[in-house]
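Report of the visiting student (M.T.), summer placement. My assignment was to run the structure pipeline on a short list of targets and document each run. The first record concerns SalK.
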Amino acid sequence: MTTLPERAVRRCHSVVNPLHSTVYFAPDYANELAALGLEERGAVYFVGRAAAFGRVGAGTVTATFYNFKHDLVARHIPRAWDVVSPEDALEARLRAADSVLRRLLGDDALASKEMAETAELALRATEACSRSARPLYAAHADLPVPEAPHLALWHAATLLREHRGDTHLMALTAAGLDAVEALVSHTATGKGMSPKWLLATRGWTAEELAAGRDRLRTRGLLDEAGELTEAGAALRESVEDETDRLDSAPYEHLGAAGVARLTELAGAFTAQAMEAGAFPADLRSKS
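After the run finished, the structure tokens were exported:
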């Protein structure tokens, strides 16, 4: 087994994942789906990530997405599949990824040798991902790898994201954090979504989020001001450490030098995308 520097897995993921996530914060995918007849903006994210499953119901989406209120999911799934098929949704998502990355990075970056190298490294890492107990990863792993390097990188980033995401849900469940508690405790770390974005995207009411904070206070994980206590900070860090441990295989397969190079290259592309406005300025709970 390759020995990686401390937190190398987390650092690499933190710069690869945004290259996937850009598509969900740009209008391109919503426009692609609208052209196919799906004009409900609230359905875009659910359709985008769940399409790899095929025509699943709301229960599957709620279970695998974890922190969305089921009522919100059921408002759109499975009805959305009557408007746009999963197959068409996946093709539209890839077209959106192409247009978003072209706009954020530029054609020269997409055609560069650095892009090709980044894609090759990320794809090599995915060779060691595991389908076991990772449904979103497993569904995406069955999709073909696009030929264009920037889309191959986007595909690989998707696989690495979903592999870690499925793994993260294992760690959250083991830590006894339900959907709302996971959200509000992550926000309290300063690295999660801002309260504004939680209310706008996850379907939970302000009262339900407040109740989640109360449950965490009862457990001694939040203080009266809504900040993490020492125990709360330790629990959140243990969740991340366990996620790193369970998600280490792709990066161990790539090796320390490969992980360092992927982190460097993907970090540069992510920095460029963020400079170009890939994400809303008020997305995070703290600056």
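The chain has one domain: 8-275. The chain has a mean pLDDT of 96. I thank the supervising group for their guidance throughout the placement.
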